[in-house]
Amino acid sequence: MDNFDTPGSPRDAALLPDTGDPGFGVYVHWPFCAAKCPYCDFNSHVRHQPVDQARFTAAFLKETAAVRAMSGPKTVTSIFLGGGTPSLMHPETVAAILDGIARHWHVPDGIEITMEANPSSVEAERFRGYRAAGVNRVSLGVQALNDRDLKFLGRLHDVADALKAIRLAREIFPRMSFDLIYARPDQTVAEWESELRQAISYAVDHLSLYQLTIEEGTPFYGLHKSGKLIVPDGEQSAVLYEATQEITECEGMPAYEVSNHARPGAESRHNLTYWRYGDYAGIGPGAHGRLTRGREKIATATERKPEAWLEMVERDGHGILDEERLGFEEQSDELLLMGLRLREGVDLARWQELSGRELDPKREEFLLEHKFVERIGNSRLRCTPSGMLILDSVVADLAC
């Protein structure tokens, strides 16, 4: 087994502590990938000609200014460069985007700045360039730790590439996470437990562990519908999920959200902003945002097609197609939906303020009695491990 100990590496550098506030995040979407994975329904696009990064950078900066005009002055608590494959960007592109964000909002030293990266696009020189630009956390799309399943998932890297990327990330960035997909066809519980323990031995402080889902519009959807792709049924998926929770808990990386696991203090600040129902700016093709104006919350969504977004920004100053004003009931439903994903649960006073009502005592009592939810003191409500398995039903029951 590889030895990933790197004493004195920058991964121990201190970041600003998590205060528990929802915060204000900035999400930047780079929509391009080297290849489209057969399970992926994200807004990602393959281009066989080089992308004009200078032109896209100018558009990102222009849209940043437009979103700043909508949000007003804010202090940024996290920045996330997602995609697509942001690690296909030149370090100069990343630096320009981060500098543009800092020109329009207050960006304190020590906030979390995350970039997603695929192992197949990782180079040490490029990683060092991202670090110099200000990125202090990288999230690697590893997805599996055996070459057979990496090929099945359509990944361009093999296990050797993945381990090289993990090693480089640990050497160069203060914080690092990587993703795995489980509940793959024919995957046994024993195989997953072995792979998960291996992953934990490579991880620094954070893992994202997602069950394979079949999304409409993907190649996997057609294969699944025709019976050529069989995934674990509900009962087997539940067993795999429970094994995941048990192992990560024992190894000191418990779930702080349905699919995300971290050592205490290493939780993703940016994703916590989503789950705590904070505000975030969405910049780039297909990006979504939530911006509060007084007691009003605006949901924004931009044009998904990269070239159409680019032309729209150059013409109009932004690529925003939709600005939906969310009523208090919609906001309270979103708060419940997001907050119950978290181990820390939902702030009931905040939910009651938004919804203008209290939880239905009969519905809550039923869920408490069957141990699907539990109270944390008098101020918070969270799902139990059993409740997490039927999260959508719990949310629907409480929101009625």
TrEMBL record:
Protein role: Probably acts as a heme chaperone, transferring heme to an unknown acceptor. Binds one molecule of heme per monomer, possibly covalently. Binds 1 [4Fe-4S] cluster. The cluster is coordinated with 3 cysteines and an exchangeable S-adenosyl-L-methionine.
Radical SAM core domain segment(s): 18-254
Keywords assigned by UniProt, alphabetized: 4Fe-4S, Chaperone, Cytoplasm, Heme, Iron, Iron-sulfur, Metal-binding, Oxidoreductase, S-adenosyl-L-methionine
Similarity comment: Belongs to the anaerobic coproporphyrinogen-III oxidase family. HemW subfamily.
Names of the cofactor(s): [4Fe-4S] cluster
SMART domains attached to this UniProt entry: Elp3
PROSITE patterns: RADICAL_SAM
Record's keyword annotation contains Signal: no
Subcellular location: Cytoplasm
GO molecular function: 4 iron, 4 sulfur cluster binding; coproporphyrinogen oxidase activity; metal ion binding
GO cellular component entries: cytoplasm
Protein's name in the database: Heme chaperone HemW
Alphabetized Pfam families for the sequence: HemN_C, Radical_SAM
Record InterPro entries: Aldolase_TIM, Coproporphyrinogen-III_oxidase, Elp3/MiaA/NifB-like_rSAM, HemN_C, HemW-like, rSAM, rSAM_sf
A Gene Ontology biological process term: porphyrin-containing compound biosynthetic process
Source taxonomy: Bacteria, Pseudomonadati, Pseudomonadota, Alphaproteobacteria, Hyphomicrobiales
